[in-house]
Amino acid sequence: MKAEQWFTHPVGLTVSAIVSTLLWGSAMPAIKIGYSELHIQSSQMFEQWVFAGYRFTLAGLMLVLFALLLEKKSNAQEPHAAASAKPLSTGRKWFLVARLASIQTLLQYLFFYIGLSLSTGMQGAIITGATSFFQMLVARFMDRSECFSANKTSGLILGFAGVAIVTFTQGGFHMQLGIGDVCLILSAFCGGFGNVLAKHEAKQLPVLWLTGRQMLLGGIVLTIIGAAKVGIAPFAWDASSLLLLLYLAFLSAAGFGLWNLIMKYNSVGKVSMFLFLIPVFGVFLSVLLLGEQFNEWILLALMLVAVGILVVNRTPKHVKKSQAAPSLNVTQP
Fold it and tell me: What is the mean pLDDT of residues 170-193?
């Protein structure tokens, strides 16, 4: 079965999106556990960036090696396939890699790691749900076919209302928008922008090749930024913290690899609703792993974001009747 057949079929799309968002949702509590094990405090920004740099450098290496294995296998089966496309110059390739790395890895996770350290796992999960809305906004400016409708506008309003209400304190309607929340919102914007940019650049470069190298480059830069203040090895590692780092690297490689493939073969509006699963998985995993508690405002925020994304992606009945799902045919054409 070809990649396009899998990622455009409802079953393949749904399974891939659930796996990707489950991995991303698990990152929220996993990072906070990592902070605890390595004794990283909320005020230690440079240590956080070194930790993030390790994670994404390792994730990039995983994807680069995986892409190389796939390329060798593909060339062995179809030795003349690579000659059909006009190759880009080396300079142009690395410009595209660097541009994506600066948005999807460097800036997104500079903000994310600071924001998560100053917020709870639940708040981080819900606020990063805004990525789907930023993704649709950016797509509208980059692709005129991604037009806004009444449904999308209503959904965006509901979604941002959910993101805003999560900043209320548990005691009532007292707005408490801290630096952590601002950083998480900026991270969500960079994430949405990066996802759309990856879709655009995947038209010129293989998805896994591009994703692996941008993560590797972004991870190296994150490490350098943090190491400039605290050194290249500020942590005392043990078996559990090393395993946690390996898991975080794996979830990044697998999550971004899958999501960028999903984005390549589908419209932004069609797949953005699945990003809501990140805060859903993140909230429940935070309850299980961190012992965090629900409150009425978090529940209300989840409901608003859920309704917003469903409204945005609601397909009119007359359109549903005219659409037929593609068959999941495993034979080659």
Answer: 74
